[in-house]
Structures
1.
Amino acid sequence: MLNDSEKNKRRIALVGAGNVATSLALALQNAGETIVAVWSRSNESAMLLGKRLECSFTTEVELLPDADIVIITVTDTALPAVARDVAKHYPKALVVHTAGSIPMSLLYESGFKYYGVFYPMQTFSKARIVDFSTVSLFVEACNKEALEMLKSLAGKLTDKVYSVTSEQRRYLHLAAVFACNFVNASYSMAAELLEQNGLPFDAMLPLIDETARKVHNLQPRDAQTGPAQRGDNTVMSQQRELLDEDFRRVYDIMSEYIQKNRHI
Amino acid sequence: MLNDSEKNKRRIALVGAGNVATSLALALQNAGETIVAVWSRSNESAMLLGKRLECSFTTEVELLPDADIVIITVTDTALPAVARDVAKHYPKALVVHTAGSIPMSLLYESGFKYYGVFYPMQTFSKARIVDFSTVSLFVEACNKEALEMLKSLAGKLTDKVYSVTSEQRRYLHLAAVFACNFVNASYSMAAELLEQNGLPFDAMLPLIDETARKVHNLQPRDAQTGPAQRGDNTVMSQQRELLDEDFRRVYDIMSEYIQKNRHI
């Protein structure tokens, strides 16, 4: 016989087995939640994550076991088709997606009655498991009960839980592209410049860390430094000369932004 | 009478009283070094830092007291003229500048016989004192004795001390512009997008921190995530629609770099 806490346990199914699913599933298990199964279009991905979580795995949505919450983490492109399949199989579960730029209404249109969004704003790579206590989680739901359920689930992973609309979430995702993806691209350009000159990228890490730490206490605008901020045209024109055409375009466009926005 | 350790103490004079001078001087004092005086063109800056360091301060180079090491931290633009004044006053001291993009030869041309470079690669703001133990310091000198002296001074502040040529230092500075100044500009754009939509920049900090942490273990190229990396053209064209012309140029140019460099 099941005891009360076992009876009350939420059963969670994961649809998708990529970077987000991996970190999220491990965090949920660590928080005491029960993952009952993993689905992926790819048998290898399903098996890898299923084995890691010690739960069942499948490539057939129809073979997924009963669940109270279904978390869909597939790519934005795959989401509409996958959501329709999931809706047929799970008419009663609370179903959420984790995408930054997909409106919640897609789930309604896919045939769900009970749905929401569970958007962890973080950069996920399989090579690195994310500590969810440091993640901001943005939730949205079709009704108050679902919202409370998602807030309670999110609250087990992090204390940074925010309730936002689909429209706000689009801007969050867009801001994340600037603050994470374009930031990493800038790191990457720095790494290329150093490598071409026999210099170690590691020497850059203290600077990278301090640049991130600074905006915990200062507005980014007030934290800005460098030749463009100082209006040092001599250094800027010398630096442009060191760059190839692609990097020079980045240099010019970023310097222009900094100069337009600097405090005089 | 002076005891041996007092007699052997290096006397350091600071020429410049800006962001670099402030953090560097406090770190040197903490490491047990003696700052004898501060010069700045601005009386207010000289006084502020002089009082903070409890040392003398002046706006006249000729009034600076005897020193064994002179550290010039003025802006690149001011450096040539200031260096000529300092050379007349300190013909025997070891004189260094702290600039990323100025070749060491400028000091020779300014009339120094004994000179070098002491380049801390970090982002300095007066509002925030930098912990020098986390800074990479790049040194260069006119001869072996001067190089050893600078390495010993640098080694009291951090264990990340590198000996580099002027040419390498130009690329270090350029890489720092990408990894720090352009990174901060991206944070700033994210902050603008959030502010326009009533969203808190603080929600971004976990993402910013993780993005920086990731490149401690992964090459930036391998750490890249986001719509451009995934080749998700739907999200990319939706995101472009949310941006004004200036931000869209940044979006396009950074996305193009990411797409050119992604692992397929």
2.
Amino acid sequence: MIRIGSAWRAPLRAAPLVRARTFSSTSVRASLWKSRWVRYPVYGLGSLAFSATAVLGGLLIYDSMTYHRVLVTDTDTSLERACEWGGPANRPILSRANAPPADGRPPKERLVIVGGGWGAVSLLKSLDPDVYEVTLVSPTNYFLFTPLLPAVAVGTVGVRSVTESLRRLLARTRGQFVQGAAVNVHPHESLDRHTLQAMDGARGLLEVELISPQWDGSADGERKPSDTSVMYVPYDKLVIAVGSVTNNHGATGLEHAFRLKTVRDAQRLRKQLLENFEMASLPTTSDEERKRLLSFVVCGGGPTGVELAAEIHDMIEEDVYKNYPSIVEREAQVHVLQNETHILNTYAEAISKFAEQRFRSEDVDVVTNAQVTQIHPDGVSFEQFNPLTGEKFMRTIPSGCTVWSVGVTMNDFTRRLSTTLPNQGHRHALKVDSQLRVLGTEPGTVYAVGDASTLDSDLKGYIFGHLDRFDKDKDGELTLAEFTQLIKVLRLKFPIANEQLQGIKPLFEKYDFDKNERLCANELAEMIADATKNMTSYPPTAQIASQEGKYLAHKLNRYASLRARDALPRDAEDLDEAIHKPFVFRSLGSIAYLGNAAAFELPIPGPFKTLFGGLIAMYAWRSVYLSEMVSLRTRVLVLGDYIKRSLWGRDVLWL
Amino acid sequence: MIRIGSAWRAPLRAAPLVRARTFSSTSVRASLWKSRWVRYPVYGLGSLAFSATAVLGGLLIYDSMTYHRVLVTDTDTSLERACEWGGPANRPILSRANAPPADGRPPKERLVIVGGGWGAVSLLKSLDPDVYEVTLVSPTNYFLFTPLLPAVAVGTVGVRSVTESLRRLLARTRGQFVQGAAVNVHPHESLDRHTLQAMDGARGLLEVELISPQWDGSADGERKPSDTSVMYVPYDKLVIAVGSVTNNHGATGLEHAFRLKTVRDAQRLRKQLLENFEMASLPTTSDEERKRLLSFVVCGGGPTGVELAAEIHDMIEEDVYKNYPSIVEREAQVHVLQNETHILNTYAEAISKFAEQRFRSEDVDVVTNAQVTQIHPDGVSFEQFNPLTGEKFMRTIPSGCTVWSVGVTMNDFTRRLSTTLPNQGHRHALKVDSQLRVLGTEPGTVYAVGDASTLDSDLKGYIFGHLDRFDKDKDGELTLAEFTQLIKVLRLKFPIANEQLQGIKPLFEKYDFDKNERLCANELAEMIADATKNMTSYPPTAQIASQEGKYLAHKLNRYASLRARDALPRDAEDLDEAIHKPFVFRSLGSIAYLGNAAAFELPIPGPFKTLFGGLIAMYAWRSVYLSEMVSLRTRVLVLGDYIKRSLWGRDVLWL
């Protein structure tokens, strides 16, 4: 029974002179209690009090049991054990973590995954836990939920809320962790006999530069070689998932710009943003300098650039404004420079327009058709193209903080591979076939996923390299039957060209210009040229890296299970193709944050292909990201950060 | 009325064939419902569900109203306004934020507070909001809850949970904020006529070095002068609350040690701790190097050192162990080096003993009587004294991470003041009188609180400087009446000597060696020497800084209110003494964290003077700190961090 009113009663009892009123007030209380307007709120408050007590009490009891050594360990990822030395530089070669099985079965294959981003983690999560000896090599010991990096850069969410321990993610597969950056790959045929013995039958060695305490965590080239040491990790299967670095796109002076690829980038950027306001508010700062300090230039009108511009604008309006209303009002300005005609140009036109209109109404300056040529310490120069007059002219805008968010390219490791391997030559990524095998490597050993890879689209090279095989009658031309066979193989080898290779008969008739019922080399070349022109390679997004990782996990699972049952097809021309279908990307749509608004592009035709709106869309956008996170921990922490922002705003401290 | 069971009922209704059973299962449900074992848990879960919905729904609605510019600003602390230039270096002199009152009343006095720690914040919180024009000068724009810094260093709580915006704390008094480090004080008599005009009647100028974006946040001397610029802040009243820096106590090689005074220190230390485990786990690391990497040496057995050692030990046992069980088991070792006979030697003996016994059982190595002489990059050398044999011998222990936590001393600013002002000369702090006025400055203008200050204990200097005043009959000796007068004044001027100056008559008789009923100079000198010997100066703690700040706020409030009513005593010999009693420290006790245990020393005699114990004491320790925090925000965030640790452990990421 719930008892209320005792607090009311106490003073009445203490004052006998008013006892006469007690009775009536008791009956008033009784009748009050009958009213739902009294009873339900009391029930509600009682529920809240009970729940708070129950939850906090439960947590306290649980908490009191957590202060001791945890004996069930996640995973002993220590690599401290005896190693043979060898390899080109005579350095330690990581030995197997476990002794081979006693029953004479072949030991598990060694799967080495390089990188700790979307591709690697999605692969890890879908991999059968017991079929490989897994080693993960990553320069950071955490996975970063990159889509929220713009939010981290302004303090909407905390950096520890969007990172998850790679060791924890690795625990399921009882894998080992090497904190280091991959430098090179040495296939077994290039190694001397001693090394081959030491690596115990592996298909090659991955050369790893161990990360030193002095390393500052940036992705590209700020490591000091003298502080690092080298180690070799033997692999039977190697998965390259190292991601990408920022591309300079022909601009100079990038050392004066911030990037937004790593945690460190976000931390540095946040500090600079806050410092600029502090500096601008000083009486020693000139008006011109103040204008410069409060001009924030984002180069790049893609999703990251747009989201960052939106987040910076949010931070200024919702938090910074409180401390410096006058200077924010007068001077603060966010600029977005985009080299295309619209921002978010990879999205549907309706979304681009919505974003531009939204930015206009929020007073974010969007400059389109602007090709950045140089970044100065105090400004950005760009060539602007006027689409009406066709004129080009140079402009320079002052900038207190420039962020470069334009495209991606290979890091040192993948660039080294790309130049040494045959059949490569893409400018920004490693070319892989439709089975995600890196071109030019021994089939079934080296795979690449995510930003580090791009699906090979060289139809021409393939067709003319294999024309003999399809031209059964050796007349130098293809009949419809021969052409049908060719297209079927092409669809398997180049799933990205599927759309262009629909309708075999119409295609054959379209390009059979002389109507001789055969396609000669010229006619074939014409067809290939047209198909290639309309093909678009997959964008470097978390979504595709995730799908590639998952695809590869399934294939590797299947391979290992067939191998364990000794059921691998023996005479297959192409083992990968024989056991698994090629990779095809299925878009789940795109989303973009636009400053207390959001836009969604769904992979469906019709009126609901694009959706956008204000706060409700923003909440939907947050829900999508919360559901995409890799662990419950990060979900709870990010939700907590949203609540924190709501109650106390973003903190604007120099930490 | 609560309705349950409708979900069960629905499928039954949809299936008429089993209607016959409906009755009996309804009655089973009804009788189940009568059982309290069913009803109460359902009520409980219902309450939880209702509460969760209500709280989250409420938050969501509130949240949706926070996405806009906040028009009621905390405080416009921007300093951007026209300033005269002047002063010794001809730099801007900050002008008044507000125009003088139109009704001809004198404008408010300008109160300048230097520093953003315990003393400054406690002063700010107790200051009447409308009586001064407040300017806060601090190199960081946040207040740091220093007692939890050891916990921050290992990730038990987050750094943003123990910091609070100084601007937010300043908002109540509508003060201004200058982000900079104080360099010097120029009293008005040293300044030229032009400057005096520009500073509008102020008592002096505070020279401030504005903090540049390049500054790394450390407390001592890593600023680059070329990146800074200088400004003058005029004051009518100046409060120095700049705290202290670490003291080297005669050891060399301190550049190889971490400290634990600032946020940056804690962040660096955390990174180093985690990196050492990572390095130690590599196969390229030799056994000797591994031993070194996992040896953590804390120099200093005071509260900070002990708490840090305990926290490091907690982190290793509860979190790091999971990832590296074998090397932690075999090699990890925390050492505490203490130059006294016991750790926590300022606490009661029972607490020291409990702490030592606790550390012994937890396998933390406590080395007492160890005077550190040199810190090497890879170890610590110290001279150990054996109290049994009286021998001294040198030892060196390898160290992968050395933390220096031994005493405090003046920073550059206070040292500069200390050397230029008369009557100073303390080695580690500015001497202040019992009204907290800095000795050697114009009375009523410059005050100091917290670690930066120490109460003057020079009884001898005072007595022999003022003997004439007390020796009314000018015979060179003091009668009992004269002596009584002297002691009364001494108690007022030197409250720290109160204990030693109890019982005037017995004191007089004790030192009247020749029993001539008069104290001659020698007898007086003897008395002073004895009293001074037993006096202990207040320790540099948050508690005393807080009390000093509050005391000063009350005095400044009283001064301003008297001044506003034009009621200041006109002919007072000493205005401060005339309007307010001297500062006396009242200890509230001490607490110390000892690794999932805690000890309390209460300011009461008897058996409850010392309390210590395990987890329950730890929860009490946490409660004390939660209640001592400066804002609800930090309380909630720290509580959240404790829950986070409980659920997912400390994160061991290199962030």
